[in-house]
Amino acid sequence: MYLVIFRFYINTKEIANNVTSYTLHSEFILLTTLQHTLLCSRLDLDGIGSLASDHNLGTSRRIERGARLVIAVPCDTRVILQMPRGNLECIHPRPLLLQLAATYLDSREYHRAFELFRKQRINLNLLYDHNPEVFSSNTGHFVRSVKDPTWLSLFLSELQEMDVTRTMYAGFYAKKSEDKSLTKNKVHSVCEVVRTAILALDDSETYLLPVITSHVRQQSLAAALDVIKTVREQEDKAGERKPVVSSGEALKYLLYLVDVNELYDVALGMYDFELVTVVAAKSQKDPKEYLPFLNQLRKMEPHYQRYCIDKHLKRFDSALHNIASCSGNNQYLEECLTLIRDHKLYTQALLLFDRSSPAYGRVSVLYAEHLLDARRPYEAALMFQRGGDLSRALQCYQAAGDWRQALTLANTMQYSESQVHELCHLLVERLAEQHQYGEAAQVLSQLVGDLEESVAMLVRGHMWPQATWSALSGQRSDLIETHIKPGLSDHLELLTSQLATAQEQFGMYKARLAVVRSTQQLHFEDKEGNTIPADSDLFSDTSSVMTSTIASSRSRLSDRSHRSSKNRRKHERKLLSLKEGSPHEDLALIRALHDLVTRTDHLRDEVRCLCTELLRFHRDKEAASLQRDLVNVLKNMQGSLAEIWTSELAGSGPQQNVFGPEATVNSITAKFASSGNLSTSHTLLGSCVARFTLLPDEFR
């Protein structure tokens, strides 16, 4: 290799054309460039290739203008540079340092590696990240090699979850394979193995501070305090013999790592008042702040004492366990119930109390009231039943519409015949409100014994086959004439009216949409009647204004996000108002048309069922007329889709199917509010007419 007028060659091949000097190291080639940088690349094909392609792969550093390489010390990290003034300077390039560090770590010379890391300020995480498997299997050797407890504490305190070979030293470790299993919970696992290795040493008491550091890094302050507590106990037993690290020194070190108020709360949570006092004494706390509180706690019964501490520390689960364990439980029952209610600890409390105890029943009732407030009546009924409040449980079963459980409970409560009869009527009303007409009819026929009302309920729910069967099986064929046939006629009249209204409204909305679109088109024409070209600046400005309007609308919608859902729905209705001349009337009309199409499509099964019953009673012409009305409406809607949802709307991108058969009015409004765009599919009713083949051709 040679250098000619800033051109650097290797075997006659030009590698770079901006080189001012170069030198060889045992592992690297070093170059200085006209850009005043020092490049370090490995002496291999990849390293040379990186010089030819990209000089900035984490191996460069800035140097003084005009500096030239003199020599790189082999098998070392020192590189000598000559400055323009003639003086010599020694530097340690990072790639050479990392190479030497890797050599030390591969040969498990952890003491020399640690010295190098501290002297050259290399991130100590590299001790583990260089090769996690080797480190984990040689933790004992690492601890014995480093020896210094201060160094071990420093290493543990600097641990981070990130892998430095993937971040700050990624350029040097480009070929390293990633093993996520070894870096998961890195801080916790490294602290664990290092502490285990320390405790296995004969002189483990020397390493008390690293042990405490490991607990702190694992967020286990209680364990750290427990270590200090153990040392205090050993000091009391040892007499005049002083340990290597006293409990006072250990506590002072712990207070350096952790906020004193946090440590005070942890000590208090260990229920050790002596330890609390020691921690508080080492802090700046005024004894008047904590001594009265501690003295008051000392006077309490042990479990209640712990309950008060847990409540003070907001550890409500633990507080519940402690107050539930208090002797003379009834004395603290009201306070326990208040804790359960305030912090919603119902499920935990049910596991703590015996089912035969009064407390269990009280908790069950509390939980039931909570479930009732959350509108979960069925679950509330179960809890009321557990709590022995059968009357309220019965009310909840009624609200849930579970007539079987309600009547079972009424039987348990030994209701009289008149009370059961009254309850059945209440249940029927509730079931009818929930549109469970079949269930209501079953109660009327089986429990009340009123077949006529049962058939009337089935007719109300348009359950024609069931109504006919009930009438015939109960030997009341007269109900067919008095209830079922009139019900069929009423339903026929209702559906015919709905189809006529849908046809009329569809035509009206479609005509109005055409007028609105025509009016909008006029705004895009000039005074002479010439249409503005698509690439016109005016067209572009208009688009920008519309985009701005949509963006501002989104912003306004976002600003109102804190409002109640009721106000939000009201705003959406105003936004897409059908009032003539409203800003988004065309979009409101499209939504209304979609709503009509969807509702008409949903009538298909209802019409099919009614036509079947009409045919059963030989009312063929009425069935054919109803079916014809539906087919005509569906065909009219199908034929108008292309006219309503134009190609511009249909081809508007990912929103294309917003008006498809699975869409709802709310989803359309949401789509508009989020994107300012509406579109549809042209295949909404493609299968509606084809599937409607109940009647033969001569009747359709």
Query: What value does the average pLDDT take?
Result: 82
Biggest sheet: strands side by side, in what order? 4-5-6-7
The residue ranges in which pLDDT falls below 50 over 5 or more consecutive positions are: 534-560, 653-662, 672-700
Rough outline: flat
Number of helical runs?
35
Cα(first) to Cα(last) distance is 96 Å
- The number of distinct structural domains comes to 4
Helix content: 55-70%
Tell me the major beta sheet: 4 strands, antiparallel
Instruction: Please report the total strand number as a whole number.
Output: 10
Estimated structural class:
alpha+beta
The Rg value, from CA coordinates, equals 42 Å
Strand content: 5-15%
Kindly describe this structure.
This is Elongator complex protein 1. InterPro entries: A-sol_ELP1, Beta-prop_ELP1_2nd, Elp1, HB_ELP1, TPR_ELP1. One of its GO terms (biological process) is tRNA wobble base 5-methoxycarbonylmethyl-2-thiouridinylation. Residues 563-573 have a biased composition (Basic residues). Residues 7-70 form the ELP1 N-terminal second beta-propeller domain. With 700 residues, the chain is α+β, with helices and mostly antiparallel strands. The protein folds into four domains: 2-92, no CATH class; 137-158 and 178-330, no CATH class; 332-487, no CATH class; 498-523 and 566-699. The protein has 35 helices and ten strands. Strands 4-5-6-7 form a four-stranded antiparallel beta sheet, with helices on one face. The chain has a three-stranded antiparallel beta sheet with strand order 1-2-3, with helices on one face. Helix 20 (358-373) packs antiparallel against helix 21 (377-386). The longest helix is centred in the C-terminal third of the chain and has 45 residues, at 478-522. Residues 534-560, 653-662 and 672-700 have low confidence and may be disordered.
